[in-house]
Structures are given as C-alpha cells and as structure tokens.
Amino acid sequence: MADRNQRPRRSFIFTPGLRPDMYPKALASGADIVCVELEDGIAPKDKAEARLKALALFETTPAEDGVERVLRINSMRERFGIEDVHAILATDTPPPALMMPKVRTPDEVVLLDQLLGERGHSTRLHVIIETNAGLEAAAEIARCSARVDALFFGGVDMAAELRCRNAWEPLLYARSRVVHAAASAGLDAIDVPFLDLDDPDGMRVAAEQARELGFAGKGAVHPRQIAALNAVFTPSETEIARARRIVTAFEAADTGLVVIDGKLIEKPVLRDMYRILAIADRMG
C-alpha cells in the first residue's frame, strides 16, 4: 500500500505569518504546499505577533483541498525558534507539518521529534538543507526521524556558505547530495525557489534540471510561477498509466518483484509509482 504521507509536492509557496489575509489566496494558488512563514520573511520585532497570527490559522479543520499546510519555524538554535516550538507545544491545534530551517545536525530534528511525541502531536517535519554542516550530515538527517517527509534544498544560504554563485553549476554537487540523501531515506527532495520573476523561461529550465536530477518539486516566489512548475513536475499520461499497471501488478502479486513488458520491476520502484499516482489524483 502507499505511504500515508505520499503526496504531490510539485510546487510550494510561502505566505507571511504576519498577513493571515494572504493565507486563503496562497491556498487557492494551485501550489501543492503552502508554507506559513515565521523565519527569514519576518523581522525580529514582529516575530511574536507573526507567531500568534500564524498558529491561529491552524485552529480550524482544513478543507479537503489536497494542499499540504506547513509552518516554517525559526532555527532551533535561536531564541525565536525555541519560542516557536514552545508555542506549538502549548496549542491543541498544531500545524500538520513544520519546516525546519538551517538544520546542521540530526540532533535538532530528533529533539523536536521527541518534544512533539511527548505532547502527542502527529506533526510531520520538512527539513531545509542550507548549511555546510547540514550538507555534510544530510544522509543522517534524512534518516534520523520517522516524522521527516522531505528535504528542501536552500540554495541562497548554501551559496553564501560555499562562497559561490547561486547558480546551477556551482551548486550541482550540493543539490546532488541532498537528492541522494532524500532518495536513500525514501523522502521527497524539493528545490529552492527561482528568484527572477522576469525570466519564466529560465525558471522552466531550472525546474526541468531539478526534475532530471531527482527533485520532486520546486518553490515559487509568486503565484504566477506555480502553473509552470506544476506542469514540469507532472508526469505524462503514459507515465501515469504505467504507474497504475505497476502498482496493480505489485499489489496483486504481493511479492518483491514483477515483470512488466518483459522488464523486471523491483519493489523500490513502487514509491515513485505511488508518488505519480498521488499527483494524478491531485489533478483529478
């Protein structure tokens, strides 16, 4: 059977915690993931207000619209991050998922996992790999908690740490490390947003490069980017039909491998097939 957390993650967009009025627009943007922002997009003087307003957004039961709702907290190594976690542990209506920025070691993720477990929260975790230390420990971070669903690649901070341009070639090694770590742990890898709104062709090329490398999706900085991102990361009708055949054959055979069109298909292929079908379901 498919993993209960297997879902399309072709595109994501941030919406500021300070502006709850923008949240419904983000949910209606077509993005697979909407992330309420408490970190870089919020000034220190506004952190407390943004936290209160953001957590209030999760007090009501979400609509069954297929959108994954996430709250990006501040780093667990900073006071604001500790205050974010304290507030999440104090509420009876936690966000369905948290995005953890600037993760350097597995210990940060394990600690948050344990705190959420003690509180009885089922909140999932998305981890951003955007530091040298995080990149070095990416494989361990990916495997350290069963709550982790995806690794996000933070290209802007990573380029600054590596002292290189924020471009495809200089960051190819770092991106590959993140994809490898995610794939080894059965997680999705999501690429950094494309920052130039005036270069839609460049964004499509960057998205196609990310897809070919193994990323499941990519971020948007504006709603007008989302349709193109979804198109790049949406499988073709042929791919969807093949995925249905493979999943049906595996579930009927109940073995570790099947033969499709004369080719041996082994069980590790199944996760990608379920992801393709999840995208097809999202498309209706």
Whole-number tally of structural domains: 2
β-strand amount: 15-25%
Q: What is the annotated CATH architecture of the largest domain?
A: Alpha-Beta Barrel
Number of helices: 12
Quote the distance from N terminus to C terminus: 20 Å
Shape: globular
Secondary structural class: alpha/beta
**Lateral arrangement of strands in the main beta sheet:** 1-2-3-4-5-6-7-8
CATH-defined topology of the largest domain: TIM Barrel
Rounded radius of gyration (Å): 19 Å
CATH class of the largest domain: Alpha Beta
Q: Biggest sheet, open or closed, and with what strands and sense?
A: 8 strands, parallel, barrel
SSE string: EHEHEHEHEHHEHHEHEHHEEH
Would you identify the regions where 5 or more consecutive residues have pLDDT less than 50?
none
Q: Looking at this structure, what is the CATH superfamily of the largest domain?
A: Phosphoenolpyruvate-binding domains
Helix content: 40-55%
Give the helices and strands, then pairings.
Layout: E1 11-16, H1 23-27, E2 33-37, H2 47-56, E3 68-72, H3 79-90, E4 97-100, H4 106-119, E5 124-129, H5 132-136, H6 138-143, E6 148-153, H7 155-162, H8 172-184, E7 188-191, H9 200-213, E8 217-220, H10 226-233, H11 237-253, E9 257-260, E10 263-266, H12 270-283
Parallel strand pairs: 1-2, 1-8, 2-3, 3-4, 4-5, 5-6, 6-7, 7-8
Antiparallel strand pairs: 9-10
Helix pairs in contact: 2-3, 9-10, 11-12
